Every structure is written in structure tokens, then in C-alpha cells.
Amino acid sequence: MKIVVATGNAHKLSEVRAILSPVADSIVPLSDFDAPEPVEDGITFAENALIKARSACEITGLAALADDSGITVDVLGGAPGVFSARWSGHHGDDAANRNLLLAQLSDVPDRHRQAAFVSAIALVLPDGGETVVEGRVEGMLTREARGSGGFGYDPIFIPTGHEQTTAEMTAEEKNALSHRGIALRKLLPIVTELTLGD
């Protein structure tokens, strides 16, 4: 089974490959195709993941997988949420997004800095079948960035039960507990069954 991944993010692509490669025949990025980016105008992670996966499936004719993910902060009512990648006003400026979020929380005591990484992953098939799974990791936000691994908000997020930020962990450690990893492992049996049916 060949799967196209609707992302331009190399980190996300490598995480998908690390978990699904054993059961998928081939995993290719959407950048291999001449495909315009759809407008992500959903108000939930699941809606945006489906928008991207449906578009990629329609354009390529292949099974398409798309992730929409971000960080939700309790004291901000779940924000940044679907706006995580452009929280500072510029899409994909990780440092600016982190710095703005930390500034917004500067007066928030440590005991109230609860947050969660959330990932919704949609798998859309050429026959019209659709599956959405979600992964969630609870944790706390630090007061400054720590670690050089990962991307996005990894340097300021400590998963519950750990002392390191996800940016201080190895790729293997992060994949074992990440929100995207959790969601992808939920997809494993589905992709396995589909591959066996090919």
C-alpha cells in the first residue's frame, strides 16, 4: 500500500515513516506531486486533518494521510490550538511562536501551566473510506526553551511523568510518547489490514 503524506514538514514525515514504514509498502511526501495546499479553515484538528487528506487523495489517487496538531494550554482556554503553527502571526516561525506563548504566560504560576500536545491524523482512501485518530500527551510548560531536538513547542513542553522537555529527548524517546506517535500507533492495525488486503 502506497501512502502519500500531506505535509511539507520533514520532521512529521520522518515520524510517520518511523512508525508506519514496517507495514506500508511506500510512504511519499505530497511534495513529490504538483499539488496546491488546501485552505485549512476547520476549527478543530480533526477537520483540518481531513481537509488536507481529502485534497491529497483527490490529487494523487493514493491513500492519503494528514496530521493536524498543536498545543493547547489550559489557562488560555485551549489556545493556541489549531493556530499553533501561526500563533505569532507568521506560519512556521517556531521561535516566535514559543516566545509569544511564554510571554503570555509569564505571570502564570508553575502549578497552572498545564498544557497538552494534540494530534489528529486522518487517513483517506481512494474508495472514499475515512479514518481519524487522535493522540494526546498531557504535560506542563517551562519558563524557557530547553533542548535542541524536536521542533515547534518541543523545547518548552515537559510530558507528565518526565523531567526533560521533548526537545531534550532522543527521537526514539519522543516517538514513544509523542501525541503524533500515539495517533500513528492507533493507525497501525488499520494500515496493516489494508496492506494485507491489497
From TrEMBL:
The reactions it catalyses are: ITP + H2O = IMP + diphosphate + H(+); dITP + H2O = dIMP + diphosphate + H(+); XTP + H2O = XMP + diphosphate + H(+)
A molecular function GO annotation: XTP diphosphatase activity
Q: Where is the active site?
A: 68
Biological-process GO terms, alphabetical = nucleotide metabolic process; purine nucleoside triphosphate catabolic process
Stored Pfam families: Ham1p_like
What family name appears in the similarity comment?
Answer: Belongs to the HAM1 NTPase family.
How does this protein assemble? Homodimer.
PANTHER family to which the protein is assigned, alphabetical? INOSINE TRIPHOSPHATE PYROPHOSPHATASE, INOSINE TRIPHOSPHATE PYROPHOSPHATASE/HAM1 PROTEIN
User: What is the name of the protein in this document?
Assistant: dITP/XTP pyrophosphatase
Write down the species. Scrofimicrobium canadense
State the gene name recorded for this protein.
rdgB
